[in-house]
């Protein structure tokens, strides 16, 4: 049990640091009112988690990469907060585009990631 907690903790540390670094980089290069950084990170995370699931990794790797890293890298709470902020600012078209892009492409990329992960293990 202690090793499982350690794998999740280590993965979570690196996932959070990666999200922070990538988000800072994207926001610095492409300043916009559209929450582009969170969208890209969550879409990338959907694809990568799909690969992890489809790759049928062992328990330790699933905990390290899937639960730990991807759990901290992707950010559903920031997605919700930014959606509410767009609603408050009455940026309806941006809000709808953000929600639709997040869900539609997130599910599609997770699906593609799973199939890619399966192909990698053959």
Report on this structure.
The chain is built from five helices and no strands. By secondary structure, the chain is mostly helical. The model has no long low-confidence stretch (mean pLDDT 97). The protein has helices at 2-29, 36-54, 59-73, 76-88, 92-120. α1 (2-29) packs parallel to α3 (59-73) and α2 runs parallel beside α5. The radius of gyration is 16 Å and the shape is globular. Helix content is 85%, strand content 0%.
Considering the chains and any ligands shown, give keywords for the structure.
122 residues; mainly alpha; 5 helices
Structural class: mainly alpha
Number of helical stretches of at least 4 residues: 5
Distance between the termini: 31 Å
Cα Rg: 16 Å
Major sheet details: none
- What is the helix fraction of residues, given as a range? over 70%
Short overview:
The protein is mostly helical.
Task: Give a topology summary.
Layout: H1 2-29, H2 36-54, H3 59-73, H4 76-88, H5 92-120
